[in-house]
């Protein structure tokens, strides 16, 4: 039994094998982009939104409101980043009910890639918000002694993000496969339903944690009382 | 569990591409559309607020105009009321004056009617008295009324012929007028006695059916007489307390 779609080579280009993880990722990207482009075509401010456009607006505004609740300094770029994380992971996980679907999030390579993206985004958003010096100083807070611990904590965030998402999605798929062999008519359906729920929760958790990490990096610390003049 | 770093790199690139795609086809159109709609709503709200303010201002102007018109209407009503009262007073005064004139006219007409009725009654009474007297004289004494009137009136006339002659001046022709022809003996007696009282004056006798029974002597522009009508006038004045004798001339 293949635990990860990385092992399934779909086709080869110039000697490089394109595995199922990448192919299904492209499928998710195509679906999301096509649906968004189709629904938002001929968008006009003076025309009331139809049903699908209302769904998209509600989705985007819900993500925006979640970010606003977490972040002290809401930014549209954070919406682009965290919203895309949520939509990509959610779509990948929800499509698991389609027979033959191999969720890209069940690949440790995908979750590691997303975690690395978050790890890269945290300093970029932090530097963009507080400046390079301000961001680097945040690693020495509250004391320079905390520098190694902050660095370890920064790395462990990405590792925990990747392992959590991968473990949940992959374990769900593995359990569904095992139960399919034991009791092929009942448990797989229940597990698929449970997989939809855990998939949505995992997408939410991943996006929320990424938002929290980025927001903590962009948050301006309160002025140090000890440096205030009497 | 293994990590394919090439796949990791490909997935990072795929993710970044997806971020760009969704930003291009999802987030920007949706958020820009929402922003545009919110701006349109804000514009409409602002326009509604401006219209509301304009409506309030217009309402205030209209209320002020209504108040001004109401005050003007009260002024006009007071003026019209005063004019109406003046017109009413004028009409009442005119009506009262017309009623007074009509009352005076009716009073005068009534008085004239009373006077005419009295005169007619007097005339009828006199005629009745004269007729009764004439009948009584003719039946009981075989005398004519005119003869008895002349016999009674002639001495009174003769007593005042001096005044008559003085008033007549140089006139020398006297006319004796009676209602009916006098009997011949009476006429001779009258002519004789007048000739004695008025010498050098020619005496002429005439009859006038419109004259009241009696005798009238005219000399020039003056005259003396005694008639039943004059006698009754004397009686009337006596009854009215205006004095005068029943035998006034």
TrEMBL record, chain A:
CDD domains cross-referenced by the UniProt entry: ATP-synt_Fo_a_6
Keywords from the UniProt entry: ATP synthesis, Cell membrane, CF(0), Hydrogen ion transport, Ion transport, Membrane, Transmembrane, Transmembrane helix, Transport
PROSITE patterns found in the cross-reference section: ATPASE_A
GO molecular function ontology, one term from the record: proton-transporting ATP synthase activity, rotational mechanism
Matches recorded under SUPFAM superfamilies: F1F0 ATP synthase subunit A
Key word Repeat present: no
Family listed: Belongs to the ATPase A chain family.
Protein name in UniProt: ATP synthase subunit a
Organism (species): Jannaschia rubra
Origin organism lineage: Bacteria, Pseudomonadati, Pseudomonadota, Alphaproteobacteria, Rhodobacterales
UniProtKB/TrEMBL annotation, chain B:
InterPro entries: ATP_synth_b/b'su_bac/chlpt, ATP_synthase_B_chain, ATPase_OSCP/dsu
GO molecular function: proton-transporting ATP synthase activity, rotational mechanism; proton-transporting ATPase activity, rotational mechanism
Parts of the chain that traverse the membrane: 6-22
Source organism, top-level taxon: Bacteria
Assembly with partners or alone: F-type ATPases have 2 components, F(1) - the catalytic core - and F(0) - the membrane proton channel. F(1) has five subunits: alpha(3), beta(3), gamma(1), delta(1), epsilon(1). F(0) has three main subunits: a(1), b(2) and c(10-14). The alpha and beta chains form an alternating ring which encloses part of the gamma chain. F(1) is attached to F(0) by a central stalk formed by the gamma and epsilon chains, while a peripheral stalk is formed by the delta and b chains.
Function as written in the Swiss-Prot or TrEMBL entry: Component of the F(0) channel, it forms part of the peripheral stalk, linking F(1) to F(0). The b'-subunit is a diverged and duplicated form of b found in plants and photosynthetic bacteria. F(1)F(0) ATP synthase produces ATP from ADP in the presence of a proton or sodium gradient. F-type ATPases consist of two structural domains, F(1) containing the extramembraneous catalytic core and F(0) containing the membrane proton channel, linked together by a central stalk and a peripheral stalk. During catalysis, ATP synthesis in the catalytic domain of F(1) is coupled via a rotary mechanism of the central stalk subunits to proton translocation.
Protein name per the record: ATP synthase subunit b
Taxonomic source organism: Jannaschia rubra
Lineage, uppermost ranks: Bacteria, Pseudomonadati, Pseudomonadota, Alphaproteobacteria, Rhodobacterales
